[in-house]
Design a protein that fits this description.
This protein is of the alpha/beta class and 450 residues long. Helix content is 32%, strand content 21%.
């Protein structure tokens, strides 16, 4: 086990530790703290009667539960772990800092204690696929890889068994990055577009959060950026900055139908199994992230076999000649635009959901260009409709539906042989579902039962 890991948790023995948020990522942390002899209070806004069995098991282990509307009141602790979904400047957290209480997070402590090299990915779109791709490439090269962060398994409880020669591949959201005090040796920013403006104060704060991924890098560390994106193209890291571009203006470029690195051919795009030009960008980012760690033959090998990540333009079923795709991860207009551009034909689109207070005007022209029938539901349905109707181009047929399920069933009923039905909401799932994965699973259930 890592000596630093042991030393840190031994130093917390007997101290009062508050963990805010008892979601999936913080539960292993609570167990770890309890096993280290800490006095742990778990705070969560979920009412006690709605807590699941796993949280109640934490109480049986000794965790003091504080739940419901007043879960942030009268916190007294030596150290507080913030849940990623809570803004660091939440008034309750600011009050705790004024009392001299240290606020940290599971991810920031992991970055401090992790004994191996870290590759981290952030961005508005493509970060999960890029993170997974990097992990797959490293595994193909024989590396021991730990995949986690905003996806997969919480990593802090595992860093005690990691070895120096391993590699941790981490997806980081803007929420996780906001108060980070460490950066990875290799940082990747896939792109930056308006997102999560229901939580961030404004676009400037969102961009600053993303920039935290390289803020603490050393001169020998590497930053990988998208040179085609208006925001990321202006960024430069503290160490080495490497760029990728589909437009031929980066260290890794798309030249015709081949991805090149520094002028040398690496990967024919025809070898890439997953569809869409955005996935070409994801491969370019991954190629730069694993530079010096994975040879090009392994890159080509993975490209021919990697089928993508669930809920990302995932082919669910072909029924009566209709192809049904689950793109539930598309919680912003830019993600849905990438999904629409992945198909040569016009599609039947299911869109709408929770309102994150982001603009939808850019989506209108793309829907007019790529969609023949549009089924809308959720809080953002009227905004998406307005964006389409504001376009001078020919518009698809638009159907307003009562809710998500009604939209899915109506779209399926309207489809005929040869059609593509794409569920790509351009909105978060929180209006009707816990998260995008639950929404995607529900979509797949409906489609498989048709």
């Amino acid at each position: 086990m890592s000596n630093k890991f042991n030393t840190y948790f031994a130093s917390l023995a007997g101290k009062r530790i508050t963990v805010i948020g008892l979601g999936v990522s913080n539960r292993p942390l609570v167990r770890l703290l309890l096993n280290s002899g800490c006095i742990v209070t778990g705070c969560d806004k979920t009412p006690r009667e709605k807590l699941d069995d796993e949280v109640l098991e934490l109480e049986q282990m000794g965790c003091i539960l504080k739940t419901g509307d007043d879960y942030l009141e009268n916190i007294s602790a030596d150290l507080v772990f913030r849940t990623p979904g809570m803004h660091p400047n939440n008034p309750a957290l600011c009050a705790l800092r004024e009392k001299g209480i240290q606020i940290t997070s599971e991810m920031d402590v992991f970055f401090d204690l992790c004994p191996c090299r870290k590759i981290a990915v952030t961005g508005s779109d493509g970060k999960t696929t890029t993170t997974t791709l990097i992990a797959e490439l490293l595994k193909a090269a024989g590396k021991k890889v730990w995949l986690g962060g905003n996806i997969g398994t919480p990593l802090l409880p595992l860093c005690g068994v990691m070895c120096q020669d391993d590699i941790a591949v981490v997806e980081l959201s803007s929420f996780q990055l906001m108060d980070m005090t460490h950066s990875p040796e290799i940082a990747v920013i896939t792109n930056i577009a308006p997102n999560h403006l229901d939580v961030h104060r404004d676009m400037d704060e969102y961009v600053e959060a993303k920039k935290a991924i390289f803020r603490f890098q050393k001169e020998t560390d590497r930053l990988v950026i998208n040179n085609d994106n208006g925001i990321t193209s202006t960024l430069r890291g503290c160490g080495i900055t490497r760029t990728f571009s589909r437009l031929g203006k980066g260290d890794v470029c798309l030249c015709g139908d081949v991805i090149t690195r520094d002028g040398q051919q690496v990967l024919p795009v025809t070898d890439i199994l997953i569809p869409g030009v955005h996935n070409i960008e994801n491969y370019m980012a991954a190629i730069l992230a694993v530079e010096g760690l994975v040879d090009d033959e392994k890159v080509r090998q993975v490209a021919k076999n990697f089928g993508g990540v669930e809920h990302r333009i995932e082919l669910v079923r072909i029924k009566d000649g209709v192809r049904y795709y689950n793109d539930s991860i598309a919680s912003s207009p830019s993600r849905t635009i990438a999904g629409l551009r992945s198909f040569p034909e016009k599609v039947i689109l299911i869109a709408g959901g929770y309102d994150k207070k982001i603009p939808y005007d850019v989506l209108g022209p793309e829907i007019c260009k790529h969609v023949k029938k549009l089924f809308l539901g959720g809080a953002t349905g009227p905004q998406i409709r307005a964006a389409v109707e504001a376009c001078p181009e020919d518009k698809p047929e638009i159907v307003d539906c009562e809710n998500f399920e009604a939209a899915v069933r109506a779209a399926a009923a309207a489809a005929t042989e040869g059609d593509v039905v794409l569920m790509s909401p351009a909105s978060a799932a929180f209006d009707q579902f816990k998260n995008f994965a639950v929404r995607g699973a529900f979509f797949k259930k409906i489609i498989k039962e048709l």
